[in-house]
Amino acid sequence: MTTIVSTNADAFVRTIHGSNAAGVYNTYTLDLYRYQLLYDSVIAQMNTYIRYFTKGEFDKLITRFTNKNYNSLILSADPLSFNTIDIQNLTGFEYDPDKFNLMRESTYNVIDGLRKTVQVSQENITLKEDITRLEVNYKDVLEDPVKLNDYINANRINVMAFQASQPFNTTIELKPWYNEYFRLYGPPFDGVFQSELLAEIVMNLISTGQIQEEDFINS
Question: Average pLDDT of the chain?
Answer without folding.
Answer: 75
